[in-house]
Amino acid sequence: MTVIKLLNKPKLVNPIFIEGLPGVGNIGRVSAGYLVEELGGKKFAELYSEWFFPFVMLHDDHRIHLLKNEFYYVKKGSHCNRDMIILTGDCQSLSPQGHYDVSTKILEFVKKFGTKEIITIGGLATGELDDKEQKVVGAVTHDELLKKYKDKKLDFNAGKKVGYIVGATGLLLGIGAEMDMKGVCLLGQTAGYPIITDPKAAEEVLIVLSDLIDMKMDMSKIGKRVTEMEEFIKKVEALQKKALAEITKQSKSGGATKEDETRYIG
Amino acid sequence: MTVIKLLNKPKLVNPIFIEGLPGVGNIGRVSAGYLVEELGGKKFAELYSEWFFPFVMLHDDHRIHLLKNEFYYVKKGSHCNRDMIILTGDCQSLSPQGHYDVSTKILEFVKKFGTKEIITIGGLATGELDDKEQKVVGAVTHDELLKKYKDKKLDFNAGKKVGYIVGATGLLLGIGAEMDMKGVCLLGQTAGYPIITDPKAAEEVLIVLSDLIDMKMDMSKIGKRVTEMEEFIKKVEALQKKALAEITKQSKSGGATKEDETRYIG
Amino acid sequence: MTVIKLLNKPKLVNPIFIEGLPGVGNIGRVSAGYLVEELGGKKFAELYSEWFFPFVMLHDDHRIHLLKNEFYYVKKGSHCNRDMIILTGDCQSLSPQGHYDVSTKILEFVKKFGTKEIITIGGLATGELDDKEQKVVGAVTHDELLKKYKDKKLDFNAGKKVGYIVGATGLLLGIGAEMDMKGVCLLGQTAGYPIITDPKAAEEVLIVLSDLIDMKMDMSKIGKRVTEMEEFIKKVEALQKKALAEITKQSKSGGATKEDETRYIG
Amino acid sequence: MTVIKLLNKPKLVNPIFIEGLPGVGNIGRVSAGYLVEELGGKKFAELYSEWFFPFVMLHDDHRIHLLKNEFYYVKKGSHCNRDMIILTGDCQSLSPQGHYDVSTKILEFVKKFGTKEIITIGGLATGELDDKEQKVVGAVTHDELLKKYKDKKLDFNAGKKVGYIVGATGLLLGIGAEMDMKGVCLLGQTAGYPIITDPKAAEEVLIVLSDLIDMKMDMSKIGKRVTEMEEFIKKVEALQKKALAEITKQSKSGGATKEDETRYIG
Question: Touching check for B150 and chain C: CB below 8 Å?
């Protein structure tokens, strides 16, 4: 079960849907987070899912937080001449099947608000740490978008660089195209492993994004904001790791789940 | 499929829902078990689920017992000035997905009886065996509960101690909040691994719980009761371990499930 | 999806449902198979399920056979004074979840024919090869059955011997009881690993079963019949093993499923 | 969720359904691909599924491609005296359960167009590289087909050679028979591991297929076509491998999925 809880129902005109969830370099997550903060995005819906990790986190030492993805909207104005829906959140699905289910639910939801265009943001692990300027890499669902964006600072050679896009960043576009939505993916290039949030790559993506949708955005606070967000992202990651270790140990001493048991369970 | 079978339908007024299932130190399980016995809780519903271990246990050497969670109610009276629903049982879900499904079904069920408040009981593995008094650790779904309970013997610093709560103890509160129920989690501190039922931690939790909901309860039999319950809990754990070992061996000699097979099956 | 395909709809009066599927010592499988052959059981329904191994077998070198469970009926007559439904088949579920789903579907199906009583047949691995006569071990869903069968050659001490019953043999009784069906489980004692079909244990179970339901059955052909059935059972097991090995190798050379991949997939 | 998207609805008369998806030697995939190209098959439906790998591929370096299976039709004419539906595609299901689900959805779909006969194409890994002519191996759902095809160049001894058929190639026939469709499976013999696309085996299968359904087809381009297709097939395989490695590494540095985690998750 994947549940999307509508907190309030904004009237949006032809909104563009922008996704940025945790992943390689957390570029999607921090880019979307910065967008929401700088543009004053208003949360209007939350998604939680049986495909997420089965725990709650503790905020401010005492407040219980269910893992969620969150939908924000931004109305058009001086910063941008069109309405936006921005999706960000704590995590992605734990299982392959979950990725399909969660992505489909997200698309059905944003389509109801009139969404016809999608921009997803992710990272591309180059495995190198170099100082050369690295262009944001792009991929599209329809060739017409390639023409539309051909003069932007985007390398449309994702196929050569990586060949595939895993999870929501890819599936939202792939399934979206089946649902008559067109889209482009922006992949910031980052060194890769170990995963470290890469604010520079996020900034580069945001510059391209601003150019793509004629958005005016103050980039000066990105360093500070990313540092703040990073702390939270790291916490989620660390807790998942710790929770997992505990579950494993627990299992070994006779709890409901054991290594052998799961071998059987498959 | 998770099935809740209603045995009889009590009329309850604004019941508080208290959960205690097997987990760290089995503190939830034995606390809820003691509550049911001391307050004369009456069973009114049973839950079983495809997410539980696929076996039946044998009681009294010959009677077949499907793994279950059980709902009891206690009407208000001299012991407590409000109605209660208490959930306890044999086990929790085997899989992450199952935790979400079972928790959601439980919450939908108790909500029908007018539940607006939840208390879940669990354990927190400190990894230390010390004699110092260790306060019960708490976490809440809403800040107003923090104010309400601020003078109780509860350390609202679960975030510092652990950061997350796995399984029903966490999800019932996290998902419960989405369904407009408020709640608090009581975590008894226990040494942790290997899992040993910790009656002292259970007693401490029960003292805090009594204080929280103005409950009068004779604590003198807790040692004896826990010893009784422990035997059963240990049996369930041991059987799961043994069943698992058998399944694994069986598989290796050509049964339907093999180590390699499950690697494929994923 | 678990599908039960009705081939024809017999009129049955208060039929007793007898289950024997592959498992420890294949005692259930061969006992049920012998029952069907000796009593001239007529197949009236077939079950197949997404929880079974995803392959077809080849019979007579060229004919494709989907893995199935099969329902037979026997009308009352000189051999037995009541109608019977007998379930046997190629395999059980591959996953824990599947066991619950398949068992529930089976019970819903037989209940429609008026079934109120269930007898499941399984094996109990003692880990010993001895010549002493080993009584069939029993377990029941309701204490009244213990009284009813107390003079039969059944040791109602399964709890001491094993403590649990895995898969259909256990769940059909456990879930059956929730659906107002009563039942008894007959466990033939067998040495256990490696799994070898144990015709002697099957014979002992059939003798007890005959006594339980006042059935007259010629036992003289059991050795021959079991030998025939054993060949097929071994084939299924061997094919699953081989299929699995192939899948695994295939995966390693770049197929859709790899060891690492399944680690991710979970 | 498995979705079949109808692009246009052809009127077909008693079409024969021919399946060729990736698998051993990719014989099915390249045979079906060649059929579509040579006979000018028109795509009329696409299938995608949550049971496929959760990523999108990049074509022509920039275009996003959701993993799919594709349905083509060919109307009867000079090449063949009956209508055909041909299924080919990028991949098969990742999980056992998925194989059943996807196969069932495919069969329900083609049945709506009046399909009563099925031919599936696969490979049989002999583990040997020899130059002797190796006949195509066959298996059928109904004995009448054995008679019908007994003079064709088909060895109906698949049972001796392999004993089972995994995935869509087997299940489409096994489940198809339950849905009143009859069918035959053509297995090209190939050396096997490591998987290398085997155009010679594909050619042999196509010759037998042409004979079976009185199809006239120019075989002269098969070498060239297979080479083209092979590049794409290899790419899909390589990307899945690479994507997987990335996911694994990502997990180890704190992402949502870790080796230990999946041990727990089962």
Answer: no
Tokens of D88: 């080919």
Q: How far is CA B238 from the centre of its chain?
A: 19
Task: Note the pTM of the prediction, 2 decimals.
Answer: 0.90
Mean pLDDT, chain D, as a whole number? 86
Find the distance separating the first CA and the last CA of chain A, reported in whole Å: 21
What confidence category does residue B195 fall into, taking pLDDT thresholds of 50, 70 and 90? Answer: low
Name which of A37-46, A147-156, B250-259 the model is least confident about: B250-259
CATH superfamily for D2-220 is PAC-like subunit (3.40.50.10900)
Query: Shortest CA distance to B198 belongs to which of B26, B36, B20?
Result: B26
Measured in degrees and rounded to the nearest 5, phi and psi for residue B205 equal -65, -40
D172 vs D170: CA distance, rounded Å: 6
Which residue would you say has higher pLDDT here, A45 or D189? A45
Architecture of domain B2-222: 3-Layer(aba) Sandwich (3.40)
Per CB-CB distance under 8 Å, the chain C contacts of D167 are: 54-55
- As a whole number of angstroms, the distance between CA B177 and CA A48 comes to 12
Nearest-CB residue to D193 (from C3, C253, C258): C253
- Report the residue count for chain D: 266
List B residues 194-253 in contact with D (Cβ-Cβ < 8 A): none
β pairing state of A136-140 and D164-166: unpaired
Nearest CB among D23, D91, D174 relative to C64 is that of D174
Q: How many CB pairs under 8 A join C and D?
A: 153
**H or E stretch at D35:** helix D27-39
Sequence-distant (≥ 6) Cβ neighbours of residue A60 within 8 angstroms: B159
Q: Which residues of A touch B94 (CB under 8 A)?
A: 256-257, 261, 265
Q: Which ipTM did the prediction report? A: 0.87
For residue A194, name the pLDDT band (cuts at 50, 70, 90): low
CA distance B111 to chain D (A): 29
> Which chain B residues contact residue C192 at CB under 8 A?
249
Residues in B touching D52 (Cβ below 8 Å): none
Partner chains of D (3+ C-beta pairs under 8 Å): A, B, C
Residue C132 banded pLDDT, cuts 50, 70, 90:
low
- The helix (run of H) or strand (run of E) holding residue B48 is strand B42-49
CA distance B40 to B34: 10
Domain C2-221, CATH homologous superfamily name and number: PAC-like subunit (3.40.50.10900)
The angle at the Cα of C71, spanning C70 to C75, to the nearest 5 degrees, equals 145
Hey, is the C-beta of A254 within 8 angstroms of any chain C C-beta? no
pLDDT band at A246 (very low <50, low <70, confident <90, very high): low
Per this entry, what is the length of chain C? Answer: 266
Q: Where are the alpha helices (DSSP H) in chain B?
A: 27-39, 96-112, 143-148, 158-161, 168-178, 199-212, 222-252, 259-265
Please, which pLDDT band fits residue A256 given cuts at 50, 70 and 90? very low
Q: How far is CA B211 from the centre of its chain?
A: 20
